[in-house]
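Sequence, structure tokens passed on for absentees:
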Amino acid sequence: MEQQTADKVKALGASIEPQIVDDRRYFHRHPEPSGREYATSDAICARLDALGVPYRRVAETGVIASVYGTADLPAKGDERCIALRCDIDALPVTERTGAPYESENPGMMHACGHDCHIAMMLGAVRILRDLASEFSGEARILFQPAEEISIGSTKMIEAGALDGVDTVYGAHIWSELDAGLFSCEAGRRMAHTDWFRIDIEGVSAHGSMPHKGVDAIVVGAEMIDALQILVSRDISPFEPAVVTVGEFHGGEARNIMAGSAYLTGTVRTWSDELRRELPSCIEHIAEKTAHTFGAVARVTYEEGNAGLSNDVKCAKRAQLAVAEVLGAGALGKYRGTLSGEDFSEYLRLVPGVFVFIGCRNPEVKANHPQHSCFYEVDESVLAKGSMVAAQYAIDFLQGR
């Protein structure tokens, strides 16, 4: 029976592949910033309406849809519920791919593949709707906003997204894995994600009289160098960690020495212990560097999402789903990444799995990293992503 279901999933996935690709291109043309995905949400709901799938709108731009199985139900209280999550926001990136479906919203781009996630999940909804007689219980689909700013999953949870849910599935199209491969390993897959800001107070002066002031820009530049040494010299090379300064702002005019400046950045760590240690290390570097130049530094440190770890049983189920619909040769291996994901907030509450879907293929210019203005994907993997998500849900709801 299991293989018969998988064959149906494959047949449906193949039949709706053109629609999945069309959806991806539509959403790619119309990217929206985190928390303001209004048109994106409207378009998702319009497609759910056309499919006759019930849904409710939550967290302002989020959508929760449900596909209910029609197979004979188990005993009362034994009904299962699985959540399938995709994210829907884009990035403040100016696209330079030259694709015919290039972004029509200036300064915004789906440079992380969330357009693909929406399309793949809508494809999974179509498969699950047409195969509702194969399972019982509820497949709950979460179209989540604001992943890029790490608050969307919390808002969805607050809106009841996980109420009554037994397990959760998520996936990410991924540029570091070859197209057609799926990585579903158990254990830690993504890093702890934290944020910092360093405000520097110096003394402004005329640009021709630097000895009369304290240049906050020079102080900030020294801090950036020192923060790189933190990773290269103060942390064991066997301990994965990244400290990245993403913003450096200072100065008001070209002939005025800056009296103030600020840096913002992100910290990525693998171990819980190092995560606890790094805030004080950054504060020490900032304060001592500022003191050396006669400036003052204030560090604001914000703990973000915890590292993402796959449940062992759920990872095995995901590997089975991939093998069922795509064959064992589609199972790839990936060591994990220091990127972060707010999907980890769901995993704090219920067991689940996060799958990496390879999309790297230089032949179609899909060889640039996530967040690049040249980011592209191999669209041949999209229908496969829909199949795996649907198969995983059906397997769980069938009691496997």
Notes: The chain is about 35% helix and 25% strand. Residues 11 and 375 are 30 Å apart (CA to CA). The mean pLDDT is 96. The two ends are 12 Å apart (CA to CA).
